[in-house]
Amino acid sequence: MSRPITLPQKIFDYDFKLLSQTEAHPRTRIRLLALSHLQNHKNYKQVATYMQVDITSVKMWLYRFRDGGIEALQEKQRSGRKSKSYGLNEKISIAIKDMQDNKIGGRMTLTDIGQMLKSDFKLDYANPSSVRYLLTQLGLSWITSRSKHPKQDLKAQNLYKKLQTNSHRCPTCGHRLKQS
Questions:
Q1: Do both 160 and 134 map to the same domain?
Q2: pTM of the full predicted structure?
Q3: Do 24 and 57 belong together in one domain?
Q4: Same domain, yes or no, for 65 and 94?
């Protein structure tokens, strides 16, 4: 039989199950659920089995909570290389929106955006999926609407939309007419 776990008294001050339901980060959510099981007097092995993690992870989470409180369970910034576009996100977003507004004929593609990033910002994204990931990070959609045709007439389009709302049609051309 395993040794009983001595839980810190402050573990009973929190409702870890409720906290896990409102937590956005999945790793932190798992830690909170594990402590919830420990609150319910489960042993390390049972909690590790429930959470599908190693038993040492469960012990570490409890030690971290014991030493640093609930803040110690939060996910920290991980090490690694910064993004190619680090610090340029706002400028890139504005440039992409300007490119869309100034595009004449056709649609803007990921390849077009990649070429613009290479020429204007010296960022070389070899793979279009990398450009798509960047657009997701910027909060932009890579699926765009059609650009404005150079010969479009906004007045004629608005008149056509107004005529479409009524049920009477023009006898010569078939367009719907405004009811008088």
A1: no
A2: 0.51
A3: yes
A4: no
What domain range includes position 164?
150-180
Do 134 and 154 reside in the same domain of the chain?
no
Q: Is residue 81 part of a domain?
A: no
Q: Which residues of 95-107 are buried (b: 16+ CB within 10 A; e: fewer)?
A: bbeebbeeeeeee
**pLDDT per residue rounded down to tens, the chain (180 residues):** 567 788 888 999 999 999 999 999 999 999 999 999 999 999 999 999 999 999 999 999 999 999 999 999 998 888 888 888 888 989 999 998 888 888 776 678 888 899 999 999 999 988 889 999 899 888 887 665 566 676 778 888 777 777 665 456 665 676 766 665
| Shared-domain flag, residues 58 and 33 | yes
- The answer to the question of residue 115 being in a domain is yes
